[in-house]
Sequence to fold (126 residues):
Amino acid sequence: MTQSISTANYLCIGCPLGCRLEVDTAEEDRIVEIRGFSCKRGKEYAAQEHVDPRRNVALTVGLRGGAWPRLPVKTSAAVPRARVLELCAALRDLVVEAPVRLGQVVAVNPLGLGADIVATREMGEG
Fold:
């Protein structure tokens, strides 16, 4: 009995090369072969992207008492791609009090995604 093989295509973001990746899968989405990568990160990225795509998120939150009204922040780890918009919506009303240190955690593990929200710049009182 022959297996049905399907191929998924991805553009690697693991390094500046931007390799075009192909992931062949058999029944139950089992990975059979990964092609097109030029480095180890590309192969790892393709496998991760195929079974559990994740993204780092960068956005701004409100800042009270600072030199600017918004504070740039990011996730401390990649979160499931399917929940990025939900995370952004959950942080929409977050307001942080100045002063803020670079790398300071401003929200601990929102939505239970396994990533904290950290400041990406210093922000003194205004």
